[in-house]
Amino acid sequence: MSENQNPRTDASNEVTVAPEAGNAVVHADRFPDPGVPEHKHRLTDTDPKAAKRAERTVTLLFVLSILGTVGSIVAYVLVPPDGTTAGVRLSTLLIGLGLALSLLGIGVAGIHWAKTLMGDREFVQERHTLATQGEARETAIRDMNEGLEDSGVIGRRGVLKGAFFGALALFPLAIAVPLIGSVGGDWNISKFKHTMWQRGTRLAIDPSGRPIKAADVTVGSVFHVVPETTEEFRETHEWITEKSKAVVLMVRLNPEDLRTDQSPEGETWSHEGIVAYSKICTHVGCPVALYEQQTHHLLCPCHQSTFDIADSAKVVFGPANRRLPQLPITVDDEGYLVAQDDFAEPIGPSFWERLK
Amino acid sequence: MAQQQRPTTRVGKAADYLDQRTSIGALVNQLARKVFPDHWSFMLGEIALFSFVVLIASGFFLTMFFEPSMALVRFEGEHPAAMQGQLMSAAFRSTVEMSFEVRGGLLMRQIHHWAALIFVGSIVLHMFRIFFTGAFRKPREVNWLVGALMLVLALAAGFSGYSLPDDVLSGNGLRIIDGVVKSIPLIGSYLSFLVFGGEFPGEHIIPRLFTLHIFVIPGLLIALIALHLFLMVLQKHTQYPGGGRTDRNVVGYPALPVYVAKMTGNFFIIAGVLTLMGATMAINNVWNYGPYDPSPVSAGTQPDWYILFVDGALRLMPGPGWEWVIGGYTLSMNLLIPAVVVPGILFTLLFAWPFVEARVTGDRGEHHVLDRPRNRPVRTAMGVALFVAFMVCALAATNDLIATHFSLSIFAITWVLRVLLIVGPVLAFWVTKRVCLGLQRKDRELVLHGHESGRIVRFANGEYVEVHTPLDEQERWLRVSYESPAPLEIAPLTDSRGVRRAGYRSERRWQRLSRFFYEDRVEPVTPAELEAAHAAHAHGRHAQVERPAAAVGAGTERPPQERA
Q1: Contact status of B564 with chain A (Cβ, < 8 Å)
Q2: How does this protein lie in the membrane (chain A) (predicted)?
Q3: For A251-305, what is the HEC assignment?
Q4: CATH architecture of the domain with range A192-339
């Protein structure tokens, strides 16, 4: 049956590969294959001078490659980077140009050699059907069957087969369980819901860590804010992870410009026009960093989600669905801005258990 | 029995030495004069292969100096001045140091980055070539799957490498990945913990990505490349249609010496060009961005080009109303659609295409002669439509740059691109299909009536005609030697005794899809038609250019081609 799989190729096989189509079998509804076009000689095949010239070109290209390698090493030795950006660039450029010349010389020479001097006569090779044919196929089928029979499991010993596949399917668990158990750290996904802001945590300037006095915040100014903490803590990984959730953008608006914020009835989350919102975009978590003073719009530079700071940071454009969570703030006895509490909802992008 | 000939030359002796120990002679018999067809487009895959070699070589250099650790350190070096005393990860510090203190280090970094961009680019172009010429058809479906898998791995390699320097840009890239991962229903939060070993960014992600980037992914790629090339040699290369090229032969030049020389030359040229790029074109100056810090981000940042389409899809998706809360659980469709569903559809289409096309064509034969894209209008149109969708998304990922460079409103640009993403592919499909059918009709016209010669002849009766020169048989063969499959025909719902047939509905669905593919088609000219055209010419009916039977969509005057 395999010989008959492809009538089309069988049909085309009747057309012999020959420059003359005269002896080809012509179907009533098919044109005959005219055969491989006539071979055209190159200049280097017919003109010995051209061949000699091509040989010289190839030689010259190999010599250029050698010069490139030498040049690259000379540049390495003579032009060390002096540490400045310009110095590093110069060293990079010179070593690179030498190396490029050395590689391109070999490459162009090889191609030119192949194209001008190596034989360009076209060959025709037969293809063979990929499926195994005839006796070899029979033997293969017989061997397979005999092998399976020798194993003694064909149609019998269902329990043994079950145990065999069961064991094979299960053993990876002994590796996977310890791996998966540890690969996710403590697997405590409720950490997504809390940040290090607490009642009374002072708002500090990022990156200096200096706490901010409400009186120092002028109308229209923007502060990139982190929770105040110790110098030592700010040199740890835990800090970077906490900071990833806790960063806040603080703006002082004219109190009359501030139309709404997110404070519930009977509470005030802003302080004299100073509002603080999570800087982590509710879309995919980029820091929302571009503030436009005129419109009070906050734009995420990654995907252009736009939030209106004067109107409880609601989404005015872009792929984010939710407003930025507000950090409730007030001032302490010394006049420093402090958090009233953690954010009222999880910050950043949505996740399955966000509201649970 | 003839005495076996003893080798006399040095090469001969070495070959004999090897052969006596490995019987390598049999392999040489198979390969040395193996014929490969020649065409520039067969080089695209080679570019991918050789950029991969450059990636391995330059990557090895980089591993000698890179420190895959997130341990926090202070930058003690003198240069660059802006970094002095800054707190950063060891990974970032070693990246800066290998750029500034290792001679040739920056060169290798830049070569590596450019090579990665070209690597993915050449894979995509290579796939376009395979797709548009139908080289994925039997027996090459398996190799298509291997190739598509390698595209996925190439993207993974690119992204994992991009993140290793631990700079502000790559850190924000990881944060976007984290956001997307978290949006996956049910397991998203746990997946995020799994990837980062805890909460983002933690202190594990760089060493983990490093292991993936220099061991797991390249290891898999090498294995798949070996399989890819093995299958290519085993099945022999496809060839473009032309005189003497059939599904039963291969016409071209021998591996030794022509292809050995051309391939070696090609490798050195690609390595040379990548080096030239690395030497002259700065890329990813991480010291300008600074070490990763969760707070800052720079405007006008774009990912590497192959991630652009996902980033663009994220930007185009409108947010409000697309976050659903079901039973208290949050489902972020505004993330899932662009970042999971869109790439999911793209890759499902890629993986499934050869099998879907074979099914709707009813085709079980081996194909070694390539299609001219015009001869498969729907396939070509689908390819172009996908490409347009990809480009619109990629363009959307640069909407902020378009806005600042051309002083346009970013909201307006986003809206235009949202509309274009829906309309563009449909329009591209329609236009491409029409262009293909038009080109096929042009082929028919050329075969039937020949080229316009520009020579006008006036007959004695005053009639003017333009003389047409008939096509030579090679040119004619190119334009008539294709198959134009007809839509599938299926048995009726009930058999002769009126009994309903099982499986009819499924067959009917496939038939509908088959109609979508092949309803509009143009048949190649037959010798009989050419004969008739000549006869018509002899009677002076020059104006009749197109026979009504060749019209599109109206069915054909010949019974459908019999296919196995």
Answers
A1: yes
A2: Multi-pass membrane protein
A3: EECCCCCCCECCCCCCCCCCECCEEEEECECCCCCCECCEEECCCCEEECCCCCC
A4: 3-layer Sandwich (2.102)
Is the omega angle on the peptide bond into residue A255 within 30 degrees of 0, that is, cis? no
Cross-strand pairs, A337: A331
Position B553 pLDDT exceeds 60 = no
Q: Quick check: B241 contacting A, CB < 8 Å? A: no
What are the tens digits of pLDDT across the range B323-377?
999 999 999 999 999 999 989 999 999 999 999 999 999 988 999 999 999 999 9
Higher pLDDT, B207 or B77: B207
Q: Tell me which residues of chain A, numbers 25 to 44, contact chain B at a CB-CB cutoff of 8 Å.
A: 26, 28-31, 33-37
User: Which residue of A lies nearest to B411 if distances are taken between CA atoms?
Assistant: A317
C-alpha span between A208 and A223 (Å, rounded): 12
The pLDDT confidence band at residue B78, using thresholds 50, 70 and 90, is confident
For A139, A146, A265, A273, A325, the CA distances from A260, given in Å and listed in that order, are 84, 82, 12, 10, 13
- What backbone phi and psi angles, to 5 degrees, belong to B456? -100, 130
Length of chain A in terms of residues written: 356
Secondary structure of B54-81 in HEC code, one letter for each residue: HHHHHHHHHHCCCCCCCCEEECCCCCCH
For chain A, the C-alpha Rg in angstroms (whole number) is 38
Instruction: Count the alpha carbons within 13 Å of B471 in the hemisphere toward its beta carbon.
Output: 19
Q: Quick one: pLDDT band at residue B40, thresholds 50, 70, 90?
A: very high
Q: Indicate the pLDDT class of residue A149, thresholds 50, 70 and 90.
A: confident
For residue B183, give the nearest of A185, A207, A351 by CB distance: A351
Match domain B24-35+43-293+306-371 to its CATH number in 3.20.20.70, 3.90.870.40, 1.20.810.10, 1.10.760.10.
1.20.810.10
Q: What is the structure's pLDDT at B3?
A: 58
Q: Where are the domains of chain A?
A: 43-116, 192-339
What distance in Å separates the CA atoms of residue B120 and residue B306, rounded to the nearest whole number?
A: 7
Put simply, whether A284 touches B (Cβ < 8 Å) is yes
- Give CA–CA dist A111/A104, Å, rounded: 10
Beta-carbon separation of B103 and A4 below 8 A: no
What b/e string do you get for B460-486 counting C-beta neighbours within 10 Å, with b at 16 or more? eeeeeeeebebbebebbbbbbbbbbbb
- By percentage, how much of chain A surpasses pLDDT 90? 73
Tokens, residue A303: 């995907």
What distance in Å separates residue A331's CA from the closest CA in chain B? 24
pLDDT of residue A4: 35
Query: Any long-range contacts for A225-232 (C-beta under 8 Å, 24+ apart)?
Result: A225/A249, A225/A250, A225/A276, A226/B295, A227/A195, A227/A196, A227/A197, A227/A201, A227/A202, A227/A203, A227/A339, A228/A201, A228/A202, A228/A203, A228/A204, A229/A196, A229/A204
Q: What are the residues whose beta carbons fall under 8 Å from the beta carbon of A235, sequence distance 6 or more?
A: B72, B87
Cα–Cα distance for residue pair B349/B144, rounded to 1 Å: 12
Note the residue count of chain B.
564
**Which of B200, B235, B296 has its CB closest to that of A130?**
B235
Q: Domains of chain B: which residue ranges?
A: 24-35+43-293+306-371, 433-550
Residues 6+ apart with CB under 8 A from A257: A273, A296, A310
pLDDT of residue B28 exceeding 60, the answer is yes
The backbone torsions φ and ψ at residue A146, rounded to the nearest 5 degrees and listed phi first, read -65, -40
Query: What single-letter amino acid sits at B241?
Result: P
pLDDT at res. B560 = 39
User: Does the model's ipTM exceed the 0.90 cut?
Assistant: no
Cα–Cα distance list, B30 to A106, B340, B464 (Å): 28, 46, 61
